[in-house]
From TrEMBL:
Family, similarity comment: Belongs to the inositol 1,4,5-trisphosphate 5-phosphatase type II family.
UniProt-recorded name of the protein: Inositol polyphosphate-5-phosphatase Jb
InterPro entries to which the protein is assigned, alphabetical: Endo/exonu/phosph_ase_sf, IP5, IPPc, SKICH
Gene3D superfamilies, per database record: 2.60.40.2840, Endonuclease/exonuclease/phosphatase
Gene Ontology molecular function terms on file: phosphatidylinositol-3,4,5-trisphosphate 5-phosphatase activity; phosphatidylinositol-4,5-bisphosphate 5-phosphatase activity
GO BP annotations, alphabetical order: phosphatidylinositol dephosphorylation
Domain of life: Eukaryota
Source organism of this protein record: Cyprinus carpio
A single GO cellular-component term on record: cytoplasm
Length: 364
């Protein structure tokens, strides 16, 4: 949050299970269009008792399109490829979301699946694998990668895409170095750390595109473009190297009408300026626990407000189109700066309306 908030990114949600951590950030002005946010965890370690293995997920509707992020840590070791697939299927079966049209992970318009998936390189011995890495002949290893091999036989993997593995295997390294495992175990290098994506089954990829294409689309017009897929060799604190990717999602339409529209003066220079007017869309379920927060531009999450005021709904409000609340004078910022107002919905557990930035000039 400290690193991303200066760039306008706000923590939307998070889910943790022992060593697995999933964080979702968004630019603050996108927050009103992220709805139906839910998270799930599934333990698969020790027969479902221990959370060292399993999956954590976060789902939401983004501008009207359902997206799910699934972070998995699957069983280790060369011989456990089948167990990895079984655990993945178990995670998918157990992760069900409430009150959504997309109830399971694979029911979403777009799914991103990533993590320490622990698939290994079969058949080839250590020297052959290291020689291919040293001579940058990684393509000779792809066909022996267990995940690539499973795509041809495992129904649950249908529709999952992955960019070309143009980076060296990210496991296993001597901690603190760029050297592959020199311990007595001498683990064979492997692409254990992966990022894949999937569009709903109606996805039809153009025949002119290769199986490994980084571009795919739904018949309805949703498209996912992968811009890069890389590892970060400079990090040495783990026996794995981190992997990252950047995608662009293109949707055929956007739900871009906020549930709550806030109105505010361009500047607050007097106490009388500290008023927020707002109107809500029809059928929006307000709560007496809703509130409007005053946030300094660069805030980190929805509770990182400077002050707030309850957006209580009185009986006389039901027929009114527009409402207003006045900020508490004693809680206004003493220093000048750029701020926004955000309407937090208690029922939706998220910010559903924001203003453009405005200036507060040392109100006293």
């Amino acid at each position: 949050m400290d690193a991303l908030s200066p760039f306008g990114y706000v923590l939307v949600t998070s889910q943790r299970m022992q060593g697995m951590l999933l964080l979702v950030f968004a630019k603050y002005f996108h927050l009103p269009f992220l709805r139906g946010i839910q998270t799930q965890t599934t333990r698969t370690g020790l027969g479902g008792i221990w959370g060292n293995k399993g999956g954590v997920s976060a789902r939401m509707n983004v501008f009207g399109h359902s997206i799910c992020f699934l972070n998995c840590h699957l069983p280790a070791h060369m011989e456990n490829s089948d167990q990895r697939m079984e655990d993945f299927e178990s995670i998918l079966q157990q992760q069900q979301f409430e009150g959504q049209a997309a109830s399971g992970v694979l029911d979403h318009d777009v799914v991103f699946w990533f993590g320490d998936l622990n698939f290994r390189i079969e058949d080839l011995d250590m020297q052959v694998v290291k020689s291919a890495i040293d001579n940058n002949k990684l393509s000779t290893l792809w066909e022996k990668d267990q995940l690539n091999m499973a795509k041809g036989s495992e129904t649950v993997l249908e529709g999952f895409h992955e960019g070309p593995l143009k980076f060296s295997p990210t496991y296993k390294f001597d901690v603190g170095t760029d050297m592959y495992d020199t311990s007595g175990k001498k683990r064979k290098p492997a692409w254990t750390d992966r990022i894949l994506w999937r569009l709903r089954p109606m996805a039809q990829v153009s025949n002119s595109m290769s199986k490994r294409s980084s571009l795919s689309g739904l018949t309805s017009g949703t498209r996912v473009s992968q811009h890069f897929y890389r590892s970060h060799m400079e990090y040495t604190i783990s026996d794995h190297k981190p992997v990252s990717s950047i995608f662009t999602l293109q949707f055929p339409y956007r739900v871009d009408m906020p549930l709550v529209t806030l109105f505010v003066e361009d500047e607050w220079t007097e106490i009388s300026d500290a008023v927020a007017k707002f109107k809500v869309v029809p059928n929006f379920a307000r709560s007496s626990w809703d509130w409007i927060g005053l946030y300094k531009v660069g805030f980190k999450h929805h509770k990182d407000y400077v002050s707030y005021v309850w957006a209580k709904q009185e009986e006389s409000d039901f027929l009114r189109q527009e409402h207003q609340v006045r900020a508490n004078h004693e809680e206004l910022p003493k220093d000048s700066g750029d701020f926004i107002l955000g309407y937090y919905s208690n029922n939706m557990s998220s910010i559903v309306g924001v203003t453009e930035p405005f200036q507060v000039i040392s109100i006293s």
